């Protein structure tokens, strides 16, 4: 048995065949079409396999993302397609491979690693914890919205440039190219809904579905709040059934509008997160505090604990996973009775960090 190692170019079709068999058994497309930025030659060095006599036994892939936010530019290592051959499970192969992905993430200067799963306990053993915020709204019924003179379309042949222009106006997003946007647009089972101004300019877009995942979920969208509400009204009518909008918590204006509708609102987590370069992340956070005029922020890692607070109002945190929640949420500092009111006022200038990853970037 050899690995974890990256596959060479000649092995890539083999690895994809293994993944398609294990993870996309009933899909007529390749998993590479669903995650076009993770499974391509440029990211081969971030794929990891354990193989035996030419046979793939276990796999995971790391896709580093640069996420821009108002205070901090994060580097995030997304980990996905973790799978072990049925006959080789329970031998520690996935644990080895995920740990190797974490090592790569550390070496490539990621601040954190993130993954999306329902095997919470499996990943908790490796130090991941559910963290970050996501708000979703199930639009239960059709609703009227001012259509703003827009023309709506479900034609998937939309110029990636137009989508990219609206995507770029988000306050928190990953660095993407137009070429990548083009690849995302052709992911199987992706529906593209658009709203157009009378002058032919794209006013809003929303993306539903992504391969076998996210059917019925609008996981990416862009445009002003009023144009998006008009587009959502069109989508709900088109579908004839409830549709769910996934939102970052910082999209407060859109959230306010959605809350006025007959919706079911759910609070969720962004994903399972693990710190991989605490000192680097801490330096970024301290810089963000200093830019807000808070010079005496303390965020330090000691051999067995973290020290966190402002000035002399400090708190000791023993578990890394508690630190993850304090930094990325969900957390209500005021309800925790940890800090003095003046410390809370300062902490809340930056924390919890409003990290967000749009649906096309999840792997
Ligand atoms: C989940 C999976 C990747 C684990 O692979 P593996 O190589 O068997 O993992 P390891 O041997 O490193 O670890 C197995 C350990 O995890 C535990 N484990 C497996 N599935 C688990 C689950 N759903 N919840 C909690 N623990 C789990 C096992 O009990 C075992 O524990 P033990 O070592 O105490 O006996 C494998 O079962 C698999 O390929 N499943 C199908 C694909 C899948 O669901 N992938 C996850 C996508 S996020």
TrEMBL record:
- Could you tell me which species this protein originates from? Bdellovibrio bacteriovorus
Supply the alphabetized keyword list. Answer: Transferase
Name it: Acetyltransferase
Keyword Acyltransferase present in the record's keywords: the answer is no
Keyword Mitochondrion attributed: no
Q: Residues in domain N-acetyltransferase?
A: 2-146
Q: State a single Gene Ontology molecular function.
A: aminoglycoside N-acetyltransferase activity
Domain of life, source organism: Bacteria
The taxonomy runs: Bacteria, Pseudomonadati, Bdellovibrionota, Bdellovibrionia, Bdellovibrionales
Q: Where is the signal peptide?
A: none
Q: Name one GO biological process term.
A: aminoglycoside antibiotic catabolic process
Pfam families the record matches: Acetyltransf_9
